[in-house]
Amino acid sequence: MKKNQNLHALRFANGTAAFGEDWGGAPVSGDPKAFVVNRYESQDKQYQVGTWESSVGTWALDYNDWEYCFVLEGRFHIQPEGGERVEFSAGDTFVLEPGFKGTLEVVERTRKWYVFHNR
Q: pTM for this one?
């Protein structure tokens, strides 16, 4: 990553990778595996940027923080508790806000960029 004062250039070749990292989701169906590559973390550790990848299966989500996502590849559904299921695929974006609860069902291996803000 090149640094230029407050500019950070993020490259796919750079980052800290973790397989099965505790990223906040809990498997509830199938045998999904997550692969996280954190490519940037702010000095105060409140912001992270990276890629998240998952195999097929379903995750339970219970968010206390804020996350913006851009889907790079794959297909999945997010089902909010008490809400309607929303389908996502490559090119889609979405935001999960603090207090979100529901499930994420990966139906085709998925990879996405994330921007995460810890509260």
A: 0.84
The two three-digit tokens of residue 114, written as one number: 């994330």
pLDDT in tens, 16-52: 656 655 666 889 999 999 998 888 889 999 999 999 9
Domain 2-117 classification at class level: mainly beta
**DSSP 8-state code for residue 24:** S
Q: Where are the domains of the chain?
A: 2-117
What pLDDT was estimated at residue 16?
A: 60
Give dist(CA 106, CA 74) in Å, integer: 8
DSSP letters, 36-77, are EEEEEE-TTS-EEEEEEEE-SEEEEEE-SSEEEEEEEEEEEE
Residues paired with 86 in a beta bridge? 78
Q: Which two tokens stand for residue 29?
A: 């169906």
